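ARCHIVE CARD
CATEGORY: sequence design from structure
SOURCE FIELD: tokenized fold
FIELD CONTENT:
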């Protein structure tokens, strides 16, 4: 019997290290929350919503994404959103998640930071433990806003430090380089938060250098444009700086023109700790296994590549070395016992 990629992917123990909770808001759930909260949305039917999800660049998506999150008002909404996401990725055999949310997307609409963080964290704790999924929680600063707003958000986060593991940087990349956020990242580092940043998704390779050298980040979100710079590729591989790669996001936002041209295999071959993630699955057409399958089939990835990708998810995570080791052993056992 020949090796069945999709079947092998299904049982692989996985992580998700790049997931915006607001990007897991499914159209049906958007209608449900809009109804119960009496919020107007610019769509009449689920089909109409799905038709709107045609993007040629990041900003097309972001405009729709910020409108979508307007239906989230109460702690219960944030809880339900997070619980639904966890239940969905549990079916993909996801064992550990490091999820983002955008506090300013809510505080700027008058929703308290506490409302969002409490709902999300309660679901991660309660539903995560029922499903056997561990987690880290990361807040992202919206880079199209100024650094003063990010600093105010960090001050909110410090009040809830016991619930938050890291800070990140997302939203419109072009024109908003990491250098705009040097002070707030320094403050966050001093507070003991882990640091990540979206860099090199649409932006140039210089933004990746800035994220590494000026923000001192621990992990790069996307990072695709590093592939234009062999010296940077060698550095990222040598320093074991993980990249959270998002295949379906990349094709949906036209960062990559065709999945067959996705740089993931080249990243692996260069020794980069590349990981597979879904970014905004409700908007980009797939969760963890969909992302693995799409890129694995397009690039003809081998069983060894898939094992490496799954392992990278754990080694690139913020879990402790002991926890990582336990998962790596489970992946090896799965791969050894898997009958082709
Ligand atoms: N916010 C949600 N998804 C994002 C992405 N792919 N890039 C930048 N900001 C985002
Ligand atoms: Zn993202």
């Amino acid at each position: 019997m020949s090796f069945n990629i999709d079947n092998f992917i299904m049982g692989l123990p996985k992580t998700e290290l790049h997931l915006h909770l607001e990007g897991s808001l499914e159209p049906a759930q958007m209608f449900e929350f809009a109804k119960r909260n009496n919020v107007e949305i610019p769509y009449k039917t689920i089909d109409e919503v799905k038709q709107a999800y045609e993007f040629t660049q990041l900003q097309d998506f972001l405009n729709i994404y910020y409108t979508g999150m307007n239906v989230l008002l109460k702690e219960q909404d944030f809880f339900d959103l997070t619980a639904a996401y966890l239940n969905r990725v549990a079916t993909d055999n996801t064992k550990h998640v490091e999820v983002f949310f955008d506090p300013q997307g809510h505080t700027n609409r008058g929703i308290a930071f506490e409302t969002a963080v409490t709902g999300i964290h309660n679901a991660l704790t309660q539903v995560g433990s029922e499903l056997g999924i561990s987690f880290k929680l990361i807040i992202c600063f919206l880079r199209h806003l100024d650094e003063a707003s990010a600093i105010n958000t960090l001050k909110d986060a410090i009040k809830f430090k016991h619930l938050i593991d890291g800070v990140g940087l997302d939203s419109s990349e072009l024109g908003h380089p990491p250098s705009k956020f040097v002070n707030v990242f320094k403050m966050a580092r001093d507070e003991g938060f882990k640091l990540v940043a979206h860099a090199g998704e649409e932006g140039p390779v210089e933004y990746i250098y800035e994220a590494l050298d000026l923000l001192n980040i621990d992990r790069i979100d996307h990072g695709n444009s590093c592939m234009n710079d062999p010296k940077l590729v060698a550095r990222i591989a040598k320093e074991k700086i993980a990249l959270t790669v998002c295949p379906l996001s990349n094709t949906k936002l036209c960062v990559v023109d065709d999945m067959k041209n996705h740089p993931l295999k080249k990243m692996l071959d260069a020794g980069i700790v590349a990981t597979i993630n879904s970014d905004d699955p409700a908007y980009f057409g797939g969760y963890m296994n969909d992302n693995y399958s799409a890129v694995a089939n397009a690039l003809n990835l081998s069983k060894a590549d898939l094992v490496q990708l799954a392992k990278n998810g754990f080694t690139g995570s913020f879990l402790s070395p002991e926890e990582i080791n336990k998962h790596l052993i489970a992946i090896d056992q799965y791969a050894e016992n898997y009958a082709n």
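CARD ANNOTATION: The pocket of zinc ion (ligand 2) is lined by residues 18, 20, 170, 198, 221, 279 (CB under 6 Å). The chain has a mean pLDDT of 97.
SHELF: design records, drawer C
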